[in-house]
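Design a sequence for this backbone.
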């Protein structure tokens, strides 16, 4: 792991609340944002930044990811917490951000929905939603 570390959803929310400069970047696809929901940071007077890490339908890396990150988080010393569905894309995003000069890039462990349960559904065992953190559906 080259990035700053894996952080639980609850610890991420606490860090975002405690540090006015910390940022949450949701790196899922626009389809996921629209149909699955998004973290709601309004209670701590923040907004989530949205940057797709992969493009649909190909699943290829968004070639403008770092450019978009630079526009939304121009200070590379800012703590940036990346979240995706389960923690895989966000780990890759944190790794890429670190390689691009971001000093404090974190992965939100288990992501927004967490791993599959015994019935192959997400959202009930771990992740942002299962941790009872604020979120909203479009």
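Sequence:
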């Amino acid at each position: 792991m080259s990035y700053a570390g894996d952080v639980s959803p609850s610890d991420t929310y606490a860090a975002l609340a405690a540090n006015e400069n910390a940022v949450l970047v949701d790196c899922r696809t626009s389809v996921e944002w629209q149909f699955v929901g998004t973290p709601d940071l309004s209670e701590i007077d923040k907004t989530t930044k949205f940057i797709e890490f992969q493009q649909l339908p190909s699943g290829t890396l968004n070639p403008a990811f770092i450019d978009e990150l630079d526009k939304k988080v121009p200070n590379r010393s800012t703590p940036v917490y990346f979240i995706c569905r389960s923690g895989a894309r966000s780990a890759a995003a944190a790794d890429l951000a670190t390689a691009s000069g971001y000093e404090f890039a974190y992965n939100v462990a288990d992501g927004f929905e967490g791993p599959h349960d015994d019935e192959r559904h997400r959202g009930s065992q771990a992740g942002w939603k299962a941790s009872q953190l604020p979120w909203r559906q479009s």
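Strands lie at 5-7, 23-26, 38-39, 49-50, 80-83, 105-108, 135-136.
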